[in-house]
Amino acid sequence: MAISSAHLPLTSSPTRFLSPHSVVGAANFVKSLAFPPAPRVSARVCSSLDHPGGACRSRRVGFPRFSLPDDRGQITEEIPTPEKPERDFTGTAYVPVYVMLPLNVIGADCDLADPDTLLDQLRILKSANVDGVMVDCWWGIVEAHAPQHYNWRGYRELFQIVRSLKLKLQVVMSFHECGGNVGDDVHIPLPNWVMEIGLKNPDIYFTDGEGRRNSECLSWGVDKERIFRGRTAVEVYFDYMRSFRVEFDEFFETGVISEIVVGLGPCSELRYPSYPAKHGWKYPGIGEFQCYDMYLRKSLTKAAEARGHLFWARGPDNAGSYNSHPHETGFFRDGGDYDSYYGRFFLNWYSQVLIDHGDRVLSLANLAFEGTPISAKVSGIHWWYKTASHAAELMAGFYNPCNRDGYAPIAAMLKKQGAALNFTCVELRTLDQHEDFPEALADPEGLVWQVLNAAWDACIPVASENALPCHDREGYNKILENAKPLNDPDGRHLSAFTYLRLSPQLMEEHNFTEFARFVTRMHGAEPKLIPSFSRKCFVA
Q: Which sites are catalytic (predicted)?
């Protein structure tokens, strides 16, 4: 289901790559040369999601052209239509740029997969003035075989390489499975001993209305259940984080580790796994509620009893299936049950479970990482945003219909825990989504603006990531616009940006040149300081 982000060739010459074996050239840029303007070519631009929502299409890049007739009505020549000038980001706020490392940079036995190649690639990134890298610390690798038996070997070797290059580290506490989602090219399950518990008690996993289990992460219903060899789920998470903090104390004390991203759900995001590809979901389906394991059903029953309406202790029976559209369901259609007394009760409970889970785990993260910035990822569920119910968001746990701000309570919880909000899909354009999937009624730009303002109104830092591989100038410009809003009276901007991800496509000469230009503009530097690569850095 992964969708290629490769571009069509931009010239007749063969594609050239930054060579992992030519890093001497990469470290010796030709100085004081600005990047050339974007070429006028037909390029292949990818717009399909890591969160889904788009397809690759051809687009004219550079000056569009129109033809002028002469006095006889004959076409004589084509005149380029001038583009809107690019915004000048010189002197704007410095926004640090990090790059996500490949998912499989650490192998199943916690060994660094290819240290020599990685070192060369990191030197190239350093030459482009990247501030640091992001890496997942996989629970399923580190604590794979027995409770509280941690193997950090490969991460220590990786961190030493990063430190030697004077780069920073964003480290993700990844308490979820890797594999089964769009863009995943490796499989890293939950720890073996946890899956053994799951064989006997499958209610530790999120469950849909048909009883299908999702082993991508643990249900939030087990947060306080002492069923993990004498520990609760949140105690398991805390012990893991505390072990990491002790093991890598020197990297914390010297500031090499600049931030901890606390995994709170699937893909490390604070959301329900409401749209799993493994269960047949396809974009732009609304997904399904994930509250039918024994523990969450018990929580729902307790909430219904407290409200005095025990018959509300059930999930909606008219909310459709994974690939339904809102108007096809009685629950999400305009005027549907989502806005009834029962619907508001259920959605309040469902979203509060999400917020309570984030609150519990982040409070323990603060104990484990005292003095180090922490953050939480929130996914950009932008499809069906232009409908009244916002069905896909409701399924994911974001109670954000058109008459309610569902992100303000999440921002308030993060404010309470002193955590930053890390949001996705800042590179997506609403117009592109409308062209590719008009039936999805998506609005990524509207969603981004709402979430950024919810966080800024709560006075918490906001960082971001791109949802898709991004290699074109148009995508980078969209990120820049969101990172540094024009004419903001308070001068608000992103606290950091993390690029998804280090790959062979990024190392292509044209793509990396655009990326380095983007980094310089994120830093607010003058274009004349942008280096151009020595040809020794590339190989055919």
A: 269 (proton donor), 465 (proton acceptor)
